[in-house]
Recover the amino acids of this structure.
């Protein structure tokens, strides 16, 4: 019997037949190319049942395919069973991307429909044949589709005013030959206006657009007639600064608001791109200058992020203490129990506003999946052996955190001990690196892999990503990975270091901290940079193969643990502080 997802796909095929479409492309994102779309735009999930963070669907009259990467292969195979949707693997040597697949199937004569609101223009322009934008096409079948959310909006202190940022952007676009800039990425809008909300799960963002011209600023944000008092107060404050606050839907009239050349972010959706093109507007797609400016935190933001990590460090130590003592007492704990417990502990802070992503709480084989989804029902129960991995983070009003700890729960195999130690060697090698100004993350990625490579081991994901200031837990333009990215690491950037190793069906190891890039000094050979650890939480040393660590690695680990203890112990109950002292003892 057909399941609900195959039935939905058949309804879409009926529409396709009536319209003469050869294929429909459904994106896993929203009108702002967000990593985490709100429920309204979880169209891939509604149509196929796949819940991964990255995936696109292609529906033809006789085929349905999901394109996603290796993080989600196992998950996709399980969730797509019975739907009639076939997995197409991306980021593998034999990859056939969507544009090429469609060209192979239909040549250049295809008629391809898509929801132009939720597909980036750069992706739509790669498609063969004739592309038709049909905004909200699933509304015909999705009867209880969620509305666009509008949660309370508020302002925050960032050390730089809205007007300062607007003046900077105006100077930037004018110098580049533009008359206006449309800011469409939600984190860029939030950064520009110093506003936050909860429109997107795990991200304190406001669904909106911002248009900055030479003499006007227009914020397209209103979606409801009844606005709560907090939001209205925020709107009144911003309006007083000569910023026009308009309905979100008025973005379709953008061409009437100015006359000149407009800078569009490279992630702009196809619907806006098409409307501007139809109006013969002059525009270019470029990487927004906001991304780099936002990634370099100012002193106010850096100090606040330090405080957020102290708060989070206290929560993590309390959580690890709870885990160890509970298992020692024979208490039964599941992966899901621990995810909830950590959330409860973090929520005791007045600054906590929610998690920064879905917690990965994984024991044994589950930890071998880098993006494991912890099940609510029938979650695996922990035993006093093997490895437990917890990758989690929080959104505090003072900043965003992201940390992974792999914890031995008792007896571990020789292979688990060796993997654990080699991954930590890689983490330390990159964490203690000193490198010249102008170095990009891809140029030092190998430092985190060398210990694994020497033993013919590796991991498939990136080593590090940027992190926002009370914004997205994943932020560019910098990263640390093997893929070429010329953006240099700069003082003020906050980036993760998270090497790992994953053995399917056995175990997984990942060690992750966040680091602030800062100046290391200048000499006759140039100017140099280094990393300062922001994350404060011990690594478990009980299963380290100490003969695999050299003197400098041991010194780094001892110095780090000394900092963890000295910073956090005064903020902990005496019995937990004593436990932390034992966990951070020098090796």
């Amino acid at each position: 019997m057909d399941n609900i997802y195959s039935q939905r796909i058949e309804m879409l095929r009926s529409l396709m037949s009536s319209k003469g479409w050869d294929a429909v492309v459904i994106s896993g994102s929203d009108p702002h190319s967000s990593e985490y779309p709100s429920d309204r735009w979880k169209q891939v999930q509604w149509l196929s049942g796949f819940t991964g963070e990255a995936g696109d669907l292609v529906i033809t009259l006789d085929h349905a395919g999901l394109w996603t990467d290796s993080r989600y292969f196992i998950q996709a195979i399980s969730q797509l069973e019975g739907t009639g949707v076939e997995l197409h693997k991306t980021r593998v040597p034999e990859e056939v991307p969507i544009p090429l697949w469609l060209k192979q199937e239909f040549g250049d004569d295809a008629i391809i429909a898509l929801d132009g609101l939720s597909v980036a223009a750069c992706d739509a322009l790669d498609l063969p044949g004739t592309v038709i934008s049909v905004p909200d096409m699933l509304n015909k079948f999705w009867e209880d589709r969620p509305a666009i959310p509008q949660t309370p909006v508020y302002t925050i202190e960032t050390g730089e005013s809205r007007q300062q940022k607007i003046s900077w952007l105006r100077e930037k676009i004018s110098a580049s030959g533009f008359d206006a800039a449309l800011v469409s990425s939600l984190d860029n809008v939030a950064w520009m206006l110093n506003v936050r909300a909860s429109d997107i799960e795990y991200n304190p963002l406001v669904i909106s657009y911002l248009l900055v011209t030479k003499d006007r600023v227009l914020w397209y944000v209103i979606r409801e007639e009844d606005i709560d008092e907090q939001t209205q107060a925020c709107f009144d404050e911003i309006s007083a600064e000569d910023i026009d606050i308009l309905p979100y839907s008025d973005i379709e009239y953008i061409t009437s608001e100015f006359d000149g050349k407009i800078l569009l972010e490279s992630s702009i959706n196809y619907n806006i791109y098409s409307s501007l093109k139809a109006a013969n507007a002059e525009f270019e797609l470029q990487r927004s200058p906001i991304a780099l400016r936002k990634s370099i935190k100012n002193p106010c933001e850096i100090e606040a992020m330090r405080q957020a990590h102290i708060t989070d460090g206290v929560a993590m130590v309390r959580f690890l203490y709870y885990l160890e003592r509970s298992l020692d007492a024979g208490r039964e704990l599941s992966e899901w129990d621990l995810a909830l417990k950590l959330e409860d502990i973090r929520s005791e802070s007045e600054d906590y506003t929610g998690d920064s992503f879905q917690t990965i709480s994984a024991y044994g084989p589950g930890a071998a999946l880098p993006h494991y989804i912890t099940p609510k029902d029938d979650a695996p129960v922990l035993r006093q052996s093997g490895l437990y991995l917890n990758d989690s983070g929080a959104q505090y009003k003072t900043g965003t955190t992201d940390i992974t700890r792999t914890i031995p729960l008792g007896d571990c195999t020789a292979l688990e001990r060796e993997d654990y130690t080699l991954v930590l060697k890689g983490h330390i090698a990159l964490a203690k690196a000193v490198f010249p100004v102008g170095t990009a993350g891809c140029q030092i990625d190998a430092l985190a892999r060398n210990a694994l490579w020497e033993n013919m081991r590796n991991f498939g994901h990136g080593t590090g990503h940027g992190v926002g200031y009370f914004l997205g837990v994943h932020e560019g333009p910098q990263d640390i990975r093997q893929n070429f990215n010329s953006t240099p690491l700069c003082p003020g950037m906050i980036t993760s270091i998270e090497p790992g190793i994953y053995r399917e069906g056995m175990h997984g190891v990942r060690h992750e901290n966040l680091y602030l890039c800062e100046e290391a000094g200048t000499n006759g050979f140039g100017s140099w940079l280094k990393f300062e650890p922001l994350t404060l939480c011990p690594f478990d040393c009980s299963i380290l193969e100490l003969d695999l660590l050299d003197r400098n690695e041991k010194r780094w680990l001892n110095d780090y643990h000394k900092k963890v203890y000295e910073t956090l112990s005064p903020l902990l109950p005496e019995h937990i502080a004593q436990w932390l002292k034992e966990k951070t003892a020098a090796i």
Observations:
- The chain has three domains: 4-140, 154-294, 296-583.
- The longest strand covers residues 513-523.
- The domain at 4-140 is CATH 3.40.350.10 (Creatine Amidinohydrolase; Chain A, domain 1).
- Residues 299-328 form the longest helix (30 residues).
